[in-house]
């Protein structure tokens, strides 16, 4: 019986068929783009899609790149365990989209430069190979159009879960009522305490900065903006992406509420049916959709498609940075054919690196908080460095570098400390779950404590907890990006004042912009790698 614990169905032949067709479809898009653009083999075509992309496909690609397999797997589990507070990130997406579209996109667009069940290893290798195939053959156009296809698959997976859950529970209204009775709809916590994991303020303020750092200066995202045919299309892609983020996070959170409605009396995690929170949604799918051949395969394809979009984006971005910042400055006389082979070779190399890194990541804890924490720790100081150079004439390169290093060390200290000594339950606020209604309970009437204490990749003896663990290390992961940005800017300004070389960083930024602009104009008028055909 659904929702009472125990074994669930496994993949049928039709599930494998649906899964395989989805993956082959993604690879087919890459092949199609490669054949379609075989006469346009310039670097601009490969890395920037010839700058002929329109707003809607770029917007869907932007959404799919970061609302990926992490969203498909992690967000429903978040809503199931902690409630609907994650929904408030919709406000952060609005702030992020506006700032990025109106401040960062015009700058980068005008520059027109590429700036700086299943067997685990079988899945990792297959993902890498498929991404390598369409990235190396089709370039950015293949990545974008494949993301469009994968975005549709991701949304279809969420809809299938919600629709079947509504049938089982007697309608969407019953799911909403169950979520309310279970405390899952109490999303607006206005406590200003920065140590509490999710509050209105931490998500709106910290979350906005985090997503601005991800969308405004991230290589794979900027590369998409400047692939648009006009600045208007580039800006519009951000606003359409904002709507896509709203839809995606709403479906993901409601999938989590659906999960709670079904398992409110029998928590699979407490009952031992799954061993980690990231397994909750796949378990639900096999539990409620196992009798429908092909539908579980669609869900796995949805999660897998999200992974493909993220990996492909990363590969293409890494190739762009390597070619533009390391290859071209050293080897300036490469032919178009040499550049094309170089792009494809680097795609294969970075695809192999991604496969290896994915194996390492499989040993980490919960995917959602882990991914966002890493984003915050790394991208916050980088955003601070960009803002330092863009806004302050008194900054210099020494101050910028030292400030970024200090910001990075500080965020890594807090972030890693939070993994070693997870925050207590009164800061994370996990909501109660029970196994009272399970048919095969391992422990009766068990209410969960903080799941992050069991999913952390680094553990220490339970009887040792330093004073910093309940203060500094308990800082909400959403604030890591804000912390890194502020520390980088403040330290950068102080070091700049001490070293006494004002205007250097500011003027250097202006000079680099001018140089890149002149190079771009020259290449457009010659037979260089950015020539339009």
TrEMBL record:
Annotated source species: Oryzias sinensis
Protein localization: Cell membrane
Keyword list, A-Z: Cell membrane, Ion transport, Membrane, Sodium, Sodium transport, Transmembrane, Transmembrane helix, Transport
UniProt cross-references to PANTHER family, sorted A to Z: SODIUM-COUPLED MONOCARBOXYLATE TRANSPORTER, SODIUM-COUPLED MONOCARBOXYLATE TRANSPORTER 1
Membrane-related topology note: Multi-pass membrane protein
GO cellular component assignments: extracellular exosome; plasma membrane
Family to which this protein belongs: Belongs to the sodium:solute symporter (SSF) (TC 2.A.21) family.
Molecular function GO terms recorded: organic acid:sodium symporter activity
InterPro entries the UniProt entry points to: Na/Glc_symporter_sf, Na/solute_symporter, Sodium:Solute_Symporter_SSF
Pfam families documented for this protein: SSF
The protein's name: Solute carrier family 5 member 8, like
